[in-house]
Design brief:
303 residues, Rossmann fold, five-stranded parallel β-sheet, four-stranded parallel β-sheet, 10 helices, 15% strand, Ser/Thr_Dehydratase, TrpB-like_PALP
Length: 303
């Protein structure tokens, strides 16, 4: 829905917040993870799944697995690997969400490696959006919803692996899904501690605050979901963002907090640090002189 006071504060004609935090599976990952599980179950007969995540993807996978098991006689199993240093609030939410004995959450030192090992050594299927193009399909559905906004000019996407941005861009800018009416710019936003894709659009590098002064330890951003430093999708994401006329933006913690406060003041909404990246990115773009003749969408992605 549009938020006029926020738009005026940003100096933008129209701003819409796409509330993916209100999705039934908790976030924008609810567009993709359930579709992946459904595909691998129906087409490949997979019944065991594993995922390494401490946030939105894990939550979506738990919800999707439980929904499947409630509605199907053939049950599936899901293992969620989380790190030892997971945010206690996130861990509590994940544990409270589990209502099915076929789903387990395990804290390990190296979640991603643990998931890879199970995927390699057994019939278990890893749910990994960063490399699996089946993950893109769920975001085509999101694009179809956004296309209902007349004269949609741009979409700002908090970005880790780039899967969401690539899925949206392909839906709007290629012919492999539907011929949508709008051709919006796609803008990605990453943090000053993890920006392997966004840096392709920025001339200056490295960025202040990227590495702590304590001998190379990586500083963590408040937007803790932005963690993919490998960015396997980088080449494709950069190419299609340029095709769309969009860009990439790098945001620090101060800008995240300013965006959260701005949304609270103008929209009376409390959003997560990860969601705030989209508003912070739009603000930075507007201050840099970018202008749009139509509405701009900021994705509110979830926790």
């Amino acid at each position: 829905m549009p938020y006029g006071e926020l738009a005026r504060a940003l100096g933008v004609k129209d701003v819409y917040l796409k509330r993916e935090d209100q999705h039934k599976y908790g976030s924008h990952k609810g567009r993709s993870i359930p579709l992946m599980i459904k595909k691998y179950f129906k087409e490949d007969g997979k019944t065991d799944f594993v995922i390494s995540s401490s946030g939105n993807a894990a939550l979506a996978a738990i919800h999707a697995a439980q929904a499947h098991n409630r509605n199907n006689p053939s049950k599936i199993k899901l293992t969620v690997f989380v790190g030892k240093n997971i945010d206690p609030k996130k861990l509590k939410l994940l544990l409270l969400t589990v209502e099915d004995a076929n789903i387990k959450i395990e804290q390990v030192e190296k979640p991603k490696q643990s998931a890879f090992q199970i995927d390699k050594d057994s019939a278990t299927k890893i749910l990994r959006q960063s490399t699996d193009d089946n993950a893109l399909l769920g975001y085509f559905e999101l694009a179809e919803e956004l296309d209902k906004i007349p004269n949609l000019a741009a979409i700002f996407v908090p970005t880790s692996s780039g899967t969401t941005a690539q899925g949206l861009a392909e839906a709007f800018w290629t012919d492999n899904y539907l011929k949508l009416k709008n051709r919006p710019q796609i803008h990605i936003i990453q943090t000053n501690t993890c920006h392997p894709i966004a840096e392709a659009f920025v001339l200056s590098s490295p960025y202040e605050g990227e590495v702590s002064p304590r001998g190379g330890e990586v500083v963590r951003s408040l937007a803790s979901a932005i963690v993919d430093r490998v960015a396997m999708r980088k080449e494709k994401v950069v190419e299609i963002i340029k095709t769309s006329g969009g860009s990439g933006w790098i945001i620090d913690d101060k800008q995240i907090m300013e965006a959260m406060n701005l949304v609270k003041e103008t929209c009376k909404l409390a959003i997560s640090t990860n969601s705030a990246l989209s508003i912070a990115g739009l603000k930075k773009a507007a201050l840099a002189g970018w202008q749009w003749n139509g509405p701009v969408v900021c994705l509110v992605t979830g926790m």
